[in-house]
Specification:
It is a single chain. With 166 residues, the protein is of the alpha+beta class. The chain has one domain: Chemotaxis protein chec, CATH 3.40.1550. Strands 1-5-6-3-2-4 form a 6-stranded antiparallel beta sheet, with helices on both faces. Helix 2 crosses helix 4. The two termini are 18 Å apart.
């Protein structure tokens, strides 16, 4: 049973997102808050994070620019090679797998590491799939959300990411 007061996921701060990604990529990452209620307008990847009972507790939604940047920067794939995939209907398998791993590590941003606190794990990462009803409601909520523009140095570019906690 979660400790009292520690039974909700943490809404990540943008400096924590920058630190996590800098640690993964070994390069500068800039995260800037978007205007209030500005979300990813063309979701490319969405990840759900669930508690031990399988309840949806958080989500991350990336546009194609962020998905490509995550996929390329993790394995230091040359930016020119990554950009060749920009017009593809789906991410190449290697870029999807890398973006999946980055979103897997994102679970740590939602977790409170105090004993007895809620812990979430990555459920699924879906590409170009519509949200189910539960995910749609979480994505559209007006509170407990962070919407940001991300830029990854070294020519990887970026785009928009939206984070939500339930």
């Amino acid at each position: 049973m979660p400790a009292t007061g520690f039974d909700i996921p943490i809404l990540p701060r943008l400096d924590d997102v920058e630190k996590l990604l800098h640690g993964l990529f070994g390069r500068e990452v800039t995260a800037k808050r978007l205007p209030q209620l500005t979300a990813v307008d063309d979701p490319w990847l969405h990840a759900d994070y669930r508690d031990k009972d399988g309840r949806l507790r958080a989500m991350a939604v990336c546009d194609k620019g962020v998905a490509l940047a995550f996929g390329g920067a993790l394995s230091l794939i040359p930016p020119a090679v990554v950009k060749e995939s920009a017009n593809a209907a789906a991410l190449p398998e290697n870029l999807f797998d890398n973006a999946y791993e980055v979103l897997n590590v994102f679970a740590s941003l939602f977790n409170d590491h105090r004993q007895g606190a809620l812990h979430v794990r990555l459920g699924e990462v879906l590409e170009r799939q519509p949200f189910d009803e539960e995910m749609r409601l979480l994505f559209e909520q007006k509170t407990n959300r962070v919407d940001a523009g991300l830029e990854i140095a070294g020519g990887y570019g970026g785009g928009k990411i939206s984070l939500r906690v339930a």
